[in-house]
Amino acid sequence: MIKKLYHGTKYYFQEPDLNKSRYYKDFGRGFYLTTNEKQAGKWAVRNLAHNDRTHVAYIYEYDFQADSLEDLKILKLLECNKEWLDFVAYQRTHFEETIEYDLIFDKMADGQGGELAEVLEDYSRGKCSFEKAFAIAKSRGSYRDQYCFKTLRALQKIKRQRYAEVYNLNGSPKILKWHNVKEKTNG
């Protein structure tokens, strides 16, 4: 089964580079994608000036081979519980080089503001109880998902199909043009 996944960024690139991924994200360093094209668009334009067509960002569309994952070590955080809260709080507050999983996926921890980020940091440092952090995390629940590809082996399961140039129209992504990716030929 092939699933469509999307990545949003202000950078144009040919191939994902795990060395350019950032620390302190929900699942640590990795290449983040979502099944929600609109969410990827928000990721892409979040740091662009509003209503400026001269500065564009990009939404990349990938085909994901979701039925051929038996060779990957996968962490599925399928519900908002203590395991999820502990994992995300740790990843967001620690500089972690160890790669335990090839692929991690579930809901996004925070798409609507900084309150949850602050609570996760306080929880990780012992300044906030599990009950308080859990209540806030649940109340901020999101139906948006994210996939974090953490290894080259995991990245081999995705193939870029096309990309869109977008700009920031009053805080929302506005697509200028989709570009299909041409197959590489030998010769």
Descriptive notes:
By secondary structure, the chain is of the alpha+beta class. The chain has one domain (about 1-180): Phosphoenolpyruvate Carboxykinase, domain 3, CATH 3.90.228. About 25% of the residues lie in helices and about 30% in strands. The strands form two sheets. Strands 1-3-7-8 form a four-stranded antiparallel beta sheet. Strands 2-6-5-4 form a four-stranded mixed beta sheet. The mean pLDDT is about 85.
Alpha-carbon distance between the termini? 31 Å
CATH fold topology: Phosphoenolpyruvate Carboxykinase, domain 3
Q: How can the largest sheet be summarized?
A: 4 strands, antiparallel
**Major β-sheet strand ordering:** 1-3-7-8
Domain count: 1
Strand count:
8
Continuous helix count: 5
Q: N-to-C SSE series?
A: EEHEEHEHHEHEE
| Alpha-carbon Rg, integer | 17 Å
Structural class assignment:
alpha+beta
Basic shape: globular
Pick out the low-confidence regions. none
Average predicted confidence as pLDDT: 85
Beta-strand content estimate: 25-35%
Q: What portion of residues is helical?
A: 10-25%
The CATH architecture name reads Alpha-Beta Complex
For this structure, what is the CATH class? Alpha Beta
